[in-house]
Design brief:
This protein is α+β, with helices and mostly antiparallel strands. It is built from three helices and three strands; from the N terminus they run αβααββ. Strands 1-3-2 form a three-stranded antiparallel β-sheet.
Length: 79
Amino acid sequence: MANIIDPKQRQTQHERILAWFDNHASLTRWEALTFLGIWEAPARISELRKQGYKFHTQLENGTSESGYPFQSAVWTLDK
């Protein structure tokens, strides 16, 4: 069975991000990819900022499974 979405019910990536914040306090790049199907979340956040939405970015430190340190953005939306 194919995973077909009715074109009339599709949301844009911007709409999916904004809808995410209806039920969640923050969004990470991993969540955007995994749950929203958005590969380039930083670009979409930037576009939404240009439209007037106020996002706060917090960088969090982590360590990869291979032991390498990294930083990851966590976005919150000012409502």
